[in-house]
Amino acid sequence: VNRCDDIVPLLSAFNDGELSPIESDQVARHLDNCEKCKETLVDFMLLYRRWTGSPTT
Amino acid sequence: LRSASITDDDELDLVRRAKRGEREAFGALVRRYQQRVVGVARALVHNPDDAVELGQETFIRAFQNLPNFEGRSSFSTWLYRIASNLAIDWRRREMRYPVARGEEAENELRKIPSASGDSFREAARDELSRKVRGALEELTAEHREVILLREMEGLSYEEISEILGCPKGTVMSRLHYARSHLRDLLKDLEAETP
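Predict the joint structure of the above. Result:
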């Protein structure tokens, strides 16, 4: 269940706080052990900052 | 930025009074939602002038149909749905979509707030805006509208799904795809910058 292929499509909604508590927990547990997915999540977060013009540092 | 809830007593009172024909109460609702309704329309049709026009039409339709509003959704969601239906009709009629024209895109990007008055930062922000605009134009209409409704208007997935008439899961997958695509496009654009 916790393969990257299953988790990646949830990362955007995870960042928006739109997942159910069960799904959020599942994503959070996966992120603890997966640098690649963590990197994708950071990319999404930076994307939002770019969009809003907030500082990226 | 979230819309007012249906449990908002003040809003319920305004809606009740507007349904009785009190124009002042309806005017208060217009003032409360005008900006958001135009924002929703802008996400769907891009051209700011058309969005303002659609916003006005939305409130005219809302006033006419107010007796049919039963409060099954929040008043704001009901309004956004009217706006999105009008925008979809407009697109069908005018066949102007999906490419945002240069001036329209410029106006859209003026909404991005400036972090500082410093000229160097302003220049950096303009460059960033140009890149975001370029990347946005690469998206399909479906993906662009969902990301504008989320990022510019701050709507929840539930609200977007009601406005666009698609399941929440579709909103989630479109947003995921749009963001992944934008991320890749921006990386490419940055790589091209010397």
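Residues 1-7, 96-103, 112-117 of chain B have pLDDT under 50 and may be disordered.
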